[in-house]
Amino acid sequence: MTTNSFDVLILGGGPAGLSTALVLARVKRTALVISNGFYRNDGIHEMHGVLGHDKWDPSDYRKESRKQIEAYGDDIQFQDAEIVKVGRATLAGGYEGFEVEAKGGQSWSGKKLVLAMGSKDVFPDIPGYAENWPDNIYQCLICDGRERAHLPFGAIGFPSPMHLAHVTMMRNLGGGDKADVTVFTNGDLPQDDAPLQDAKKAAESLGIKFESRKIKAYERASAPDIGLDVCLEDGTKKRVAFIADKPPTVSVGEKMLVDGLGVEISKDPLGSFITRNEPFGSTSVKGCFVAGDAGMSLKQVTMAVAHGVGAAAGAMRDLCTEEGEKALAAVKKTDVEGVERTPTDATLCEKEGR
């Protein structure tokens, strides 16, 4: 089956987009999954904390997921493309839906739109950071860290007293009193911030070390060694098995979506994301849903999958509601025009006085 028009357009072929597609396949809705081949966890060879799939390779997870979707038939189509334009469009019958355009000029339309294209990290301008991401610099210690936590490791920054809980988690991950954890503050902490200084002292009392010299670069350790060297401003190098750091993120294609659709964007200390409303992930644009990393600060495969289920349910609910309302309007119009309908058992009983 080849078509350019679908019930639902899904932008993104990661866990959120594939989860959306699977649910839509179950209820026999047509959808097109469009992927640009970019995945935020490229470079990671194992997923962690994903029930039933712990330690799976993310690429194997996507392949198996697609295989399961394709087993349902051809209602769900897949397309590799880079989308450069997204907007509202008037479809057949005057339906107000959506249209997307790819870099090569091809376009597709859909009654509903699910934004599941994920997010990207905004790296600090420090040499070697990008080269060590994500296999030596970890943004989530639930997802990564345990396998190397018996070795010395570190974290970047100590921005607030609340960060005490984070470094305490790191100490626990490293084996409590056996942990060798260094917090690289990349500069002196403000002396006049009493709560922050108290939190630092509490961390030090638990054995957490602090390094205030500024970071000049990161250098990957040469095989067979693992980890990286944190290169400080005076030429000193500190070897760690990994660094925990969470750079801010932005939704992939955020400017395109704002310009083309007018979707509302939310911001917090961890970056920006498309504003998502519970329970279905609806956005500020009617008929448009967001699922996964593009619509949340907490980035995790299991949560992205759950969001995909919600987005699919929301799109399906809207489609079915519209179709039901259209049928009801047709019935009411027929009544008004006085056109006799096929009698039901109830109307026959009424005519016969029963």
Descriptive notes:
The chain is α/β, with parallel strands linked by helices and 354 residues long. It folds into two domains: 5-121 and 248-330, FAD/NAD(P)-binding domain (3-Layer(bba) Sandwich), CATH 3.50.50; 129-244, FAD/NAD(P)-binding domain, CATH 3.50.50.60. It is built from eight helices and 19 strands. Strands 1, 2, 3, 4, 5, 6 and 19 form a seven-stranded mixed β-sheet that branches. A five-stranded parallel β-sheet has the order 8-15-9-10-11, with helices on one face. A hairpin with a 7-residue loop joins strand 12 (215-220) and strand 13 (228-232). Helix 1 (15-26) runs parallel beside helix 2 (58-70) and helix 1 runs parallel beside helix 7. The chain is elongated and about 85 Å long. The chain starts with a strand and ends with a helix. The model is unreliable at 346-354 (pLDDT under 50).
